[in-house]
Write a structure and sequence with these properties.
40% of the residues lie in helices and 15% in strands. The chain has 264 residues and is α/β, with parallel strands linked by helices. It has one domain: TIM Barrel (Alpha-Beta Barrel), CATH 3.20.20.
Length: 264
């Protein structure tokens, strides 16, 4: 059985999991668009959240802020991004998270992508990786590090020589794969050939057409991804699933039911 959960508010992720009938949740620890460090809002702090999750049998995942971009050549972004990544890594470890998800980032227009690949290597070497660091494919941008398969391969080739590489994994987002123009019939195998692993799936439908470059999630079965292909990606990846679909507990329960029925 594949574990299916959802992205939730962080104040009480244990209650959020229960409301969805799930034992897996993902959340931000702080502002997803800001450079302020992580904030544990759970009553009692990190130790209390870790204990509560263990008691309830709930697996926790932390998503790093969207603004983290360790690939960029802009020092005013790259250096704070490395610091923020380490802060969220430390916080994720403190709550006993199963992984920290981070977007692949991008380089500036006109910059050779290989510079971004090497900046990723430096970031891995500079980070004290305490829980698996899961790099996520992204939907848009010609300069992105993780939209196209050849760019993901470039990142992996670069970081493969870095100390701590064995703790780096991959998070496959189905909406991003669709919007990014990847062949959904083969993307799971394609990613595995590059990375050797898929550790987590963000299962989302897409409000936009194939190769649109638009990162707009839809509830399962309500978007432009073929339902059979969406279920096949999840089945083939054979990894825990986080729904990042619109709505709250009610909508997520419906999406969990949809996915469960399509996987059977």
């Amino acid at each position: 059985m594949i574990s299916i959960g959802a992205h939730v508010e962080q104040a009480d992720p244990i209650a959020e999991a229960a409301a969805r009938g799930s034992t897996l949740v993902q959340f931000f620890l702080g502002d997803p668009q800001g450079y302020r460090g992580p904030e544990i809002r759970y009553d009692g702090g990190a130790d209390a959240l870790r204990a509560a999750a263990e008691a309830a049998g709930v697996t926790l995942y932390v998503h790093a802020p969207y603004i983290v971009n360790v690939a960029t050549t802009n020092n005013r972004i790259r250096i704070p991004s490395r610091k923020l990544l380490q802060q969220h890594m430390d916080a994720a470890a403190a709550i006993g998270a199963a992984g920290l998800i981070v977007h692949g980032g991008h380089v500036e227009k006109g910059v050779d992508p290989s510079v971004g690949f090497d900046n990723w290597r430096k970031a891995v070497e500079a980070t004290d990786i305490k829980v698996p660091l899961l790099i996520e494919n992204t939907a848009g941008g010609d300069n992105a590090m993780a939209r196209y398969l050849e760019r993901i391969a470039g990142v992996w080739d670069a970081i493969s020589t870095a100390e701590g590489f064995e703790e780096v994994g991959f998070c496959l987002d189905t909406c991003h794969a669709h919007a990014g123009g990847n062949d959904l019939e083969t993307v799971v195998d394609d990613i595995r050939k590059i990375t050797g692993r898929i550790d987590l799936v963000h299962c989302n439908d897409s409000r936009d057409l194939f190769d649109s470059g638009a990162d707009r999630h839809a509830n399962l079965g309500a978007g432009h991804i073929d339902p059979d292909l969406l279920a096949a990606m999840v089945r083939d990846a054979d990894a825990p699933v986080v729904l990042e679909t619109p709505g709250g507990a009610e909508e997520h329960r419906a999406d969990i039911a949809w996915l469960t029925s399509h996987l059977s």
